[in-house]
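Working notes for the structural subgroup meeting. M.R. asked for a predicted model of this chain before we commit to crystallization trials. I am recording the input and output together here so anyone reviewing the notebook later can reproduce the run.

Input as submitted:
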Amino acid sequence: MQISRISLLLCSSLGPLSAATTSPLYERGYTVMPEPQKVTLGDNDFRFGPDWRLEAGPGAGPAIEALKADLDSRFHLRLERSGGGVVRLTMAPNSVAIGAAQDRDKNAIAAQAYKIDLTRDRVNITANAAAGLFYGVETLVQLLKPRGGALWLPDGRIEDWPDLQLRQIYWDDAHHLDRPEALKRAIRQAAFFKINGFALKLEGHFQFKSAPAIVEPYALTPAEFQDLTDYGLKYHVQLIPYLDGPGHIAFILKHPEYARLREYPDSNYELCVTNPDSYKLMFGMFQDLIDANKGGNYFYLSTDEPYYVGLADNAQCQEGARAKELGSVGKMLAEFTTKTANYLHDRGRTVIFWGEFPLKPDDLASLPSHLVNGEVYGPQFDPLFRKHGIRSMIYTSSEGEEKLFPDYFSLPASRRLHPAARSAPRVEETFRKISYDTARRDADLIGMVNAGWADMGLHAETFWLGYATAASAAWRPGSPDPSESMSAYYTLFYGWSQTHMNRLYQLMSTQAQFWNDSWDTIQSTARKGIWGFSSGIYNPRRPARDQGIALPPAPGPDLGYRSDWPQNNARRLALAEDALAENDELIGLLHANFKQVELNRYNLEVYLSIAAIYRQNLDMLRSIGGIDTMLKGASDAAGKNQTRQALQAMDRALEAARSIQWSRNTVLRNAQQTWYKSWYPRVREANGRRVLHEVDDVKDHLPDRTTDMSYLVYRQLLLPFGEWVEQIRGARNQYARAHQMPAREINSIGRT
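Returned structure, recorded in token form:
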């Protein structure tokens, strides 16, 4: 899925939004996300501590529980039942007035509104409804500032409400499964940042009663999914089921049981939408999910990228005639969307879909008006969706196709080995999209969704900066500046003891980009070709793409050696040396923060495992260069009849190669140990179920290439490194035997 690049120049046509240089609270030394709509501060700060007590009116119990839990977990603070200062929570209809908001549903906005009056002896939090009272509590917790061994608050008043009623994130468990306790932590973290929708993509990681063949070795039970749903509702977060169709369902169509439902027999990507059994499959899976999601109001029907709908005309699927009858392939997609969405709508769900290609403006009237469009598409489409009664979400993403870490910062072109398209850093891009897109003028906006795609196998801990800042922009667009939002996030996510976190995130971003850029893109010989893409069906298939790197040549039996590898890789090695110095800095910052932050230390543990992967790649590049130098030294010694010195140089080269393999396996094992603290293991078989390992015929998702976590070092596993080392060892032993010296044996240390 793509999001459009937009310009700040649009701001002039979209009303009075503008990014303040510094928000009032931030200027005073306090951090709140999202920034409240209206802040009036007095001149003084006052202490807050255990001598304060809680008072609550009717209906405030859940908010009180949240306040107690947050004060305890973040500050180890418990309030007395009687004391000096009072925190009073009051919920009463029409007690908080709202101001301007983009969303036309003012009742939904008012339900999330709150106000806080802050004085030296009393803090009053008032709201119209439970959601607003909870958000007021979270703002109070965020406001607390440690200083001089005490907690401080500013005197004044905060009046707050969201600009858009829905602030949702997409959580991708398609290629792994988070443990239920990890998902609960994520839901609670989302609520803290006033995110109120958690769209969970599970694919085969849910125990579908209607489609047992697709269930993976580790999969949530319906009871576990319902428990997560109930947990989210406690904190005003909707857990939202997410299911693709008709495209993006290789996880279903790869199975022999469902191959007959393919649009094209030789592609597992897309469903035949004229086959009645396709709808039976979808409806059964829908029902399984909504039965395990009681209390939920939404469902993501992901009609994302249905490239070939209406095109098939084969013995298994005849769509062409129906598309012609309807008038376009877009109307055929609308027919599929209508049938599937109506099933969900009739069962009380608001259906969020992607109203995209091949839909054209003339096709939109064929859609039911009860839909919510999950992405805005510009002035050609947005007014027509609004006219037809379809509300829209602004779609942004924290992650697209990046590997290891999102592009929160950009690696300069001067430090790249290969040219790359310029793009704005993720937080800045998201801020602009939500705040200034033409959809604010043209669409009937209801909310925002920010996606953390895990198609490249990233850990979701890397997405939180994007999630939190996106929700902030959707609550109050245009302010504060993205850099302030990021700074506030660092404090609120890690605690007040974090240090140099902006630099840490910059290094995590740029090191990931160099990790990817430091290898070359090559045609894959390890996997089947790509069947097609948005441009059409490839005939024949086009080769998939992998990453590779040229290795130096192996020496001859007399150790003769000629290599131009250093010259060909001079820039690669120079850039790697620069990156090594920055990796030292990064690992130092990670360890320093890991020791001292109060919150979310596991997040930094994950980052340390990723930084080690960066490091292993850099060490490998340097070591290959060193091996080339050693082979050249061995050749020179052999030419001078210095047999012992020649063999010693060859042995050093073999030890260096062995060290590369050992280091690769070590960082993979450490990553597994760290990531599996929050994930179930990625295994081929467990719980009486077995993975059918077959890659997607259209989408190239890195985790699909292996059934375990070795996808993190997949390119090294494909590299003919072992064969190269054997060639070096063979040359070494031939030379040794020719000079009556002992041969060297070396055992493979394997893949893991």
